[in-house]
Design brief:
It is a single chain. This protein has helices spanning about 1-15, 20-25. About 5% of the residues are buried. The longest helix has 13 residues, at about 1-15. It is mainly α and about 60 residues long. The chain has two helices and no strands. The protein starts with a helix and ends in a 36-residue tail after the last helix. The chain has a domain at about 1-35. The radius of gyration is 23 Å and the shape is rod-shaped.
Length: about 60
């Protein structure tokens, strides 16, 4: 991915549209190059107990 991204950066540099590769790859319009990956949310832990505890809310007591 980085080789393809560097090619696109070099073309943008030659056209005068980019000067810094880090800023170029981090820009929102260049996310489709796939060089900078999006952080994923952590996988929630699965509760396998037969009667999982639900958090008590004030709605349950109304």
């Amino acid at each position: 991915m980085l080789e393809r991204g560097l090619y696109h950066f070099s073309v943008a540099y030659d056209l005068g549209k980019a000067t810094d590769p880090v800023k170029y790859f981090a820009a929102k319009e260049n996310q489709d190059l796939g060089v900078v990956k999006v952080l994923r949310k952590p996988v929630p832990k699965l509760n396998l107990s037969p009667f999982p505890q639900l958090p008590l809310t004030t709605v349950q007591f109304s």
